Amino acid sequence: MTGPTRRHKSKGGVVNNGCDRRTRHNSNQMALLSYDSPTRWLVKICTKSTLRPALVFAHFDDAPLSAFSVLADTRFDALNIVVCGGKPQNQEPGVWDRQCGFSCSNHAFTHRLQEYEAVNREVRCGSITLDIVDGQYQTGQPDRWDQARRKATVLIRRHRSNVIITHGWRSEHPDHRLVVDLASKVSEELQIPLILTCDRPYFSCSGGQCRSLASRKTTSLTCSFFLHDSDWTTKIRSIALFGSQHSALSAAFGEGWCDEAHLRYECYSLAFLNRGRAI
Fold it and tell me: Cα-Cα-Cα-Cα dihedral of 178, 10, 55, 245, to 10°?
């Protein structure tokens, strides 16, 4: 996440413990009620017998927050690519790192990298970091973003990924929006489906009604999943490992930013089918 660009106060919703084996959907979207996990849903809509997902997210904690159930599903060989994994050159902490209590950018980067590695050990997922510097330290970097896109393309092709999962079109964080653009271009080049997620904790989906994926680009398959107890327990344990950001997240999103109403639902939307064709 590495800091919200503005405070977003989510309303959350009443958690329905009876909906853990159902997929909620908006009235103008296709109903897919027989899938009890995101990975089973992805297998169906991507028409693949198995998944090799590439999760392309901006910051160390973004995939665990928004797409944990796919990240941690050991049945599939997932690859987690963190695009903004570059080390800052200046010593002064950025705005978000200062809010997290760091007085030195190197200390913040090293500490957050250690947290990320601890989460990787928890979920046992392959991961690679690219060298884009977090936007709180450096903005723009058009040449570096183009290089990152080319490198991500090579990595995803080498991994033989058959689906890309990334942030949603309506992401509020500038880094997230740049990563969505990067991932969509890679999807088109490799001709594999692109899946969007709701950015947590910026958005919460009350009762599984997805509120963040409606966008300038039409998607006809959008589903929200209520995580099973085992997945939810593991997700919370993993999110706890990003402890350096908890106080700043509470200040930005409220004390309940990591409760069930905010994090137990995960939303996925099919944006592109093969050959980059929007649906």
Answer: 90
Which position has the higher pLDDT, 229 or 223? 229
Checking if the pLDDT of 49 tops 80, the result is no
Q: What is the pTM of this model?
A: 0.83
Domains delineated in the chain:
31-276 (3.40.50.10320)
Between vectors from CA 220 to CA 154 and to CA 180, what angle results, nearest 5°?
Answer: 35
